[in-house]
């Protein structure tokens, strides 16, 4: 740097943005599409519809982004802890200088295990030479009898027969029914191929079935079937699944067709193909077109790659990722601000509750209970004192009561009806009954004699006793 702070002349000084962009282009152009297996973690799905997560194994992890136009095609919903197999592009997120993978396709790792088994068997059979072109038989120029090994009820046989009827109905088709899916299907197909090879009653053989998942097509990835196709003395065409489905059977067979319909077209001649001259011209033209197509296909692929590196959609994806990042920061800031406001509100609510008059009500209630208890005790003491005084008065009253006199052996004499006490002997006549009330019980007596004061008392007469309970 010179005194003015400018870079020295002749030096190419990079900015951070330029450096990240060039590293990004270097990574994306230096790596093809890759398959990566790992465990999903730190999964985030913002409102934009993109998916951001990490793929990890026991020793490392890498950031991944799957944009909305790709993840809408997913047949499952990934979650933290899910083991997946992803087809990715190596890239860099320039805004933060982070190495990341752009996910184009993702599937559960169960399919990944099958794919690994597929790749291992493919590599082993390729080393043994089962895929070599030297072992492949050419198809007959004209097929009169065609054998089809497939399920008799599947869509594949219907497609094949429909195309053959349209293109060349003269071909005689022999269907060799066999299960094309499930346990033991590979062994059954291999046994059927061996049987057809021994019969030698067809010019060529088509092994086919319709589309399905990797697991559905797995019978055509078994080693026993691959070796049966390789050992078959007849030319074998394999057409399994859709155009994107590649099986071991396709690689071992003498020819591979992308679909059952395409296989029927491959094995049936066109009307014009019956003419020798037209067939030769068509072959030469096809070769020329093929060379021209390959040349232009390579040029187109080069241009497509250059366009992909400069495509505004890529920058749009980067801007979308940056927008998701800013949106996440905004959401975090809003949650933090809301938390602070909520904490402040809780403090004010606590202070208000401490000044709430309703908090004094329990204290006043306790004071009232205390005063009520004191009043109760005081009233109880007054009642006790009044009860003691009443007992003293009862004792005094009993002392002067005539009932106390009865306790000393005296009696109260009344007329027989008990209403009139007798104080004088003249108040009763001889022969009348009187009642003598004692301290406990009464005596009913009949008067025999009357004697005035000073006369002796003579006991006699009829006596009837009556207790106090009678």
Description:
Among the domains are: 16-114, OB fold (Dihydrolipoamide Acetyltransferase, E2P) (Beta Barrel); 144-268, Response regulator (Rossmann fold, 3-Layer(aba) Sandwich); 371-400; 405-466, no CATH class. The protein is built from twelve helices and 14 strands. It has helices at 16-30, 68-71, 109-128, 155-167, 185-199, 223-231, 248-252, 260-267, 276-310, 312-354, 360-400, 402-407, and strands at residues 34-44, 51-56, 61-66, 83-93, 98-108, 145-150, 172-177, 204-209, 236-240, 255-256, 412-415, 433-437, 442-446, 463-466. The strands form three sheets. A five-stranded mixed β-barrel has the order 1-2-3-5-4. The protein starts with 15 loop residues before the first helix and ends with a strand.
